[in-house]
């Protein structure tokens, strides 16, 4: 049976992958990396690798995709296949870095409360704002909390440009994105898929930035096919 390591995104926890973890249990031994303790991707990757089996499939969303690239830099021989959801191989632009640092300042002063209902439209397709999906996103952010959010933002700020390493990725790769994702839009996913030899690209209609919650059955089907390929 395949070992599968799942990497959550910013302010996400195990609930992000709840449907996939349950549905794929007969196909893979699944573990979730702890992405709350470290303020650099290098340290996050080292922690994940220390807890992971010798060889594993790797799937990450958003910040989890940034971490997946770092794991590949540190231990490429240990990764057997790669799935990237709603992420980018690029570093922050200067404007993105400025906004991120501003959020960190607001968070330290208590003026920023993580994910609020006002911010949900940046993360979810309009069809998912009300109801259980929106509520789950708010609850995840509350569970992850302020200090972990600050560490995660610092890690994201320090990430390198992963585009030069894309052609060296030589494992079966799935790159997927919500068709309505505004944070990491489809063009960024297409760039990753074009850069990795043989990568499969998939776009999920009716989804924003969090397809594992917004279209859980479709994401599970993609991952099941990727694991079996």
Summarize the helices and strands and which ones pair or pack.
Blueprint: E1 2-7, H1 18-23, E2 28-32, H2 41-51, E3 56-61, H3 63-74, E4 79-85, H4 94-108, H5 120-123, H6 132-157, E5 173-178, H7 186-195, E6 200-204, H8 211-214, H9 216-228
Parallel strand pairs: 1-2, 1-3, 3-4, 4-5, 5-6
Task: Describe, in short, the structure shown.
With 229 residues, the chain is an alpha/beta fold. 44% of the residues lie in helices and 15% in strands.
Distance between the terminal alpha carbons, to the nearest Å?
Answer: 14 Å
Q: How large, in whole angstroms, is the Cα Rg?
A: 16 Å
Count of beta strands: 6
Structural domains: how many? 1
Uncertain runs are: none
The coarse overall form would be globular
At the fold tier of CATH, the topology name is: Rossmann fold
The share of residues in extended strands comes to: 15-25%
Task: Report on this structure.
- It is built from nine helices and six strands.
- The chain has 229 residues and is α/β, with parallel strands linked by helices.
- The chain has one domain (2-92, 154-228): Alpha/Beta hydrolase fold, catalytic domain (Rossmann fold).
- Strands 2-1-3-4-5-6 form a six-stranded parallel beta sheet, sandwiched between helices.
- The two termini are 14 Å apart.
- The relative contact order is 0.19.
Main attributes?
229 residues, Rossmann fold, alpha/beta, single chain
